[in-house]
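The authors assume throughout that readers already know how a fold can be written as discrete tokens. In essence, backbone conformation is discretised, so a fold becomes a row of integers matching the chain in length. A single example would do more here than another paragraph of explanation. For illustration, here is how one protein appears when written out as sequence plus structure tokens:

…
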Amino acid sequence: MKTRIITAVVALAIFIPILWLGGIYIEIASAVLAFVGVSEIFIMKKMMVIHPIAILAMLMGVALTLPDTFFKGLWLNKNGLFYAFILILLVATVFYNQTFNIEDAGVIAICTFYVGHGFFYLTAARDKGLPYLFYALLLVWTTDIFAYLVGRKFGKHPLDPVVSPHKTWEGSVGGTIAAVIVVLIYNAFVPLQKNLGILIIATIALSIIGQIGDLAESSLKRHYNVKDSGKILPGHGGILDRFDSFLFVFPCLHLLGFF
């Protein structure tokens, strides 16, 4: 527990100023997080991160975090670059067919896209403004904390016994209710939405989406039979362990029209 607390304090001491400053600082941070996050996919798959495919995937993850303006004037835009990446993965299934198959290519393509775009929308949320960014942070953190506390105290019915046996329906509902309450208090001081009904519905949806993101990453770890996605954060695991909910929530914030 002591290690977890120290790591959390140090991480926040670094992360919060970066979020506050925004601009190039958060773009660099998002790129670094995506690079490490994609590398964790290969670590879980027990593939060497110095393998050419791994290096290419990590660089693609970084490219996906970059703003669209970065690609102006280049012969390939972001979509074209990702399509070229897909083609390279498919070609690799031909020339490395003994060690790299179509399932490997599929996992790497999906996870690279999911991680890269997730951190891209972290930057996009900050560009829209700190109120929207901190809305997402509060929503996810509150859901996580109270899902744990309520689940530990009152949890009896497993949310998903196979993927994450310690999470419960009671905790999930408790976390979502707490997120709504905290967001309404936040909205009273930092107005995001005048229509409280829309804000409540959006918060419930995003709280659930964040929990699904957590379960999706747990499913990935369960598939590869690992406890954590990495070890870069002592006591907390890897980057994907800490950002799993955010990688779902930030893109959905965009899809819901927040920015």
